[in-house]
Write a structure and sequence with these properties.
The complex is a heterodimer of chains A (251) and B (415). Chain A has 251 residues and is mostly helical. Chain A has one domain (2-248): MetI-like (MetI-like fold), CATH 1.10.3720. Chain A is built from 13 helices and no strands. Chain A is globular. With 415 residues, chain B is α+β, with helices and mostly antiparallel strands. The longest helix of chain B has 18 residues, at 195-212. The chains are: A mainly alpha (251), B alpha+beta (415).
Chain lengths: 251, 415
């Protein structure tokens, strides 16, 4: 079952990509637009990851340390983007920030254009990967021994010192996992990006959009080269997640 | 029953403690920690009522109580992890009630030890100084001193998960000693350990506390532990202090029936006060009573421990012993270090007080059942082997010491 469903499609990327020799492959990969698309994907995913890890950390801390009215509703809201189709997410962002959008319409007269920029890609990435880091970090907060923080407080630490020296080290594994998951997901994001970025080659075209565009133009080789890079990249992230688990969680 | 055996051991230790050369000299020493009129509520339920006590410099006080008695809440209030509803916490003359935990300078040894899992032993111990921004050299020196004090030098680079329970506990203590705490608070310090390790660690901690001379408050539900660890013991019951005193006082002069039964096996009989004596059946036990508290003709309870019972086959009663009654031996059992006997007192021995107080458990039966009563006695091995006693034999029962309490203790004694 696994063979035709998962393994063979992946293998065929490599078979097709290498069919015309490494030179061709390398040529397709180092094309100006291809390099730009890869760089843009990395950069936008990086900033989305930074934001979502910080936010996830903060949200997980608040949700697991404080009990307040509407907490569960808030948790559901945070987790909602997992269930929303990415095209809907992109469309929603357009409706908000686009030139005629709810907020964008007030920004446009001042010359501020949010959509169809790298910023729009970051916004889309943040939206779709929003719950990932939170989802990994919160369970660790929930199961963390409260007496560690209490001990730190009685020893004389401020809240910030306790967080920095005691809480954060215990979250190291969860933070790294959360970041890798977020990043992997953001790099591959397509549905929302294609709507908000404008898909302008060399300006707002990310790697997955590049694959799509080149495929449409019939340049299978160009599309294939980037596909290989993205596939390898995701293998790498998942092997880190898989093999580094023990190392990250050593007590 | 092993608990009785333990109590016996603990009692022997009490006697050793009362040797004047080792007796603690804390009575007149300075107050290191005071809890004044503390009460606490969670919602509408009151969990602590008017708790007050002092701990002297270098003294070890044990808060002893069953689970749910509120003892842990007292500890958390002193540590600043919980706010009292009323009352004050005073550390070396400074009212710290309003201060957050981190500004109080108390050392808490948590039941789980709460060592920082990602820090080595050294780092754990040095943590208090590090966050106080002390110089590296000073931190290193203090950590070295403490490592040798708790004998963990060779484990300094290990992580807590690589240490045994006892070693972890020593790290936890050293970690608090590093910043010279005002008082050490131990939350069920031996709860997670097996009996053997527990007894061993207990002695170790006592020796360590004597060395560092820091006042300590322990929390436990284990009476043997309380008697052995504490210079004084406070028995906590349903959110108030039933009695506070030296282990000797708590064990031998319990202020309430709860204290008497919580600290070990106790026999309870009814009697009537008749000027300077208590009549229990035909027996007259002469005793000095507080005339204010006990009136002539008043019904009382007399409480005595199994080891306070002296048995003999003849009617001869040793001087200082109070003859109680004759009895039939119902059962003899050997419980390791001593012998335990169940005796049935002869009719009339228990039936002096004709109250109809159904709350008192000895009088809940029919009048016939009331007139026959069982008590428990224990005898040390030498005596048990010298004078053999068998079930069915008749003996004369005398008691060496006993406590008199009012029959209806409405309000527990709040001193």
């Amino acid at each position: 079952m696994m063979l035709p469903l998962v393994f063979l499609p992946l293998v065929s990327i490599f078979v097709f990509g290498m069919r015309n020799g490494l030179d061709k492959f390398w040529g397709a990969l180092t094309a100006q637009e291809a390099v730009f698309a890869l760089k843009l994907s990395m950069a936008t995913s990086f900033w989305a990851t930074v934001f979502n890890v910080l936010f996830g950390l903060f949200a997980a801390y608040v949700m697991s340390r404080y009990n307040f009215w509407g907490r569960n509703a808030l948790i559901v809201t945070i987790s909602l983007p997992t269930a929303i189709p990415t095209a809907v997410a992109g469309f929603a962002l357009l409706l908000l920030w686009g030139p005629y959008g709810t907020l964008g319409r007030f920004l446009a007269p001042h010359g501020i254009q949010v959509m169809f920029t790298a910023g729009a890609i970051i916004l889309a990435n943040i939206f779709v990967t929003f719950p990932l880091a939170f989802g990994v970090i919160k369970p660790v907060f929930d199961t963390m021994n409260r007496s560690l923080e209490e001990a730190s407080a009685t020893i004389g630490a401020t809240r910030w010192q306790t967080f920095w020296y005691v809480t954060l080290p215990s979250l190291r594994g969860a933070i790294v996992s959360g970041a890798l998951l977020t990043f992997a997901r953001a790099v591959g994001e397509f549905g929302s990006t294609i709507l908000v970025s404008g898909n302008l080659a060399g300006r707002t075209q990310t790697a997955p959009l590049y694959i799509f565009a080149k495929f449409n133009e019939g340049q299978i080789e160009a599309a294939n080269a980037i596909a290989i890079v993205l596939a390898l990249f995701s293998f790498l992230i998942f092997s880190v997640l898989f093999f580094a688990r023990d190392w990250l969680d050593v007590d | 029953m092993s608990t009785e055996e333990n109590v016996l051991k603990a009692k022997q230790k009490l006697i050793e403690d009362h040797d004047p050369s080792t007796a603690s000299t804390t009575a007149s020493a300075q107050k290191a920690t005071s809890v004044v009129g503390v009460s606490k509520r969670f919602g509408k339920t009151s969990v602590l009522e008017n708790i007050s006590f002092d701990v002297a410099e270098g003294e070890a006080l044990v808060l002893l109580g069953a689970s749910g008695s509120g003892k842990t809440t007292i500890l958390r209030i002193i540590a600043g992890l919980e706010q009292p509803y009323t009352g004050h916490v005073i550390l070396h003359g400074r009212d710290v009630t309003e201060l957050p935990a981190r500004e109080r300078g108390v050392g808490v040894i948590f039941q789980s030890y709460a060592l920082f899992p990602k820090m080595t032993v050294e780092k754990n111990i040095g943590y208090g100084l590090k966050i106080r921004k002390r110089r590296r050299k000073e931190i290193r020196e203090t950590v070295n001193e403490l490592l040798s004090l708790v004998q963990l030098e060779e484990h300094r680079k290990k992580f807590p998960s690589q240490l045994s329970g006892g070693q972890q506990q020593r790290v936890a203590i050293a970690r608090t000693l590093a910043y010279k705490p005002e008082v050490l608070l131990f939350d069920e310090p031996f709860g997670a350990l097996d009996t053997q390790t527990r007894v061993h660690l207990r002695r170790e901690i006592r020796a360590l506390l004597r060395k560092v001379n820091v006042p300590a408050i322990f929390i436990t539900h284990d009476q043997e532990e309380a008697l052995e660890l504490g210079d004084r013991v406070a028995v906590i019951y349903k959110g108030h202090i039933e009695q506070i005193g030296t282990p000797f006082e708590i064990y031998n002069q319990p202020a309430t029936e709860y204290v008497a039964t919580f600290l070990g096996a106790a026999n309870i009989l009814e009697g009537v006060v008749r000027n300077n004596s208590v009549e229990v059946g035909p027996a007259r036990l002469s005793v000095q009573l507080d005339k204010q508290k006990f009136k002539d003709g008043e019904c009382v309870k007399i409480i005595f421990r199994p080891e306070d019972v002296s048995l003999s086959k003849t009617d001869f009663v040793r001087p200082g012993h109070h003859k109680l009654s004759t009895a039939v031996i119902e059962e003899v059992s050997f419980v390791g270090a001593y012998e335990r006997l169940r005796l049935q007192l002869d009719k009339g021995a228990a039936d002096t007080c004709t109250t109809d107080d159904s709350a008192f458990f000895l009088t809940t039966e029919t009048p016939e059942a009331r007139s026959t009563q069982s008590i428990i006695a224990t005898r040390p091995k030498p005596e048990a082997t010298m004078t053999k006693l068998n079930a069915g034999e008749r003996v004369v029962v005398a008691i060496t010491s006993f406590t008199v309490l009012p029959l209806n203790q409405k309000q527990p004694n709040q001193k």
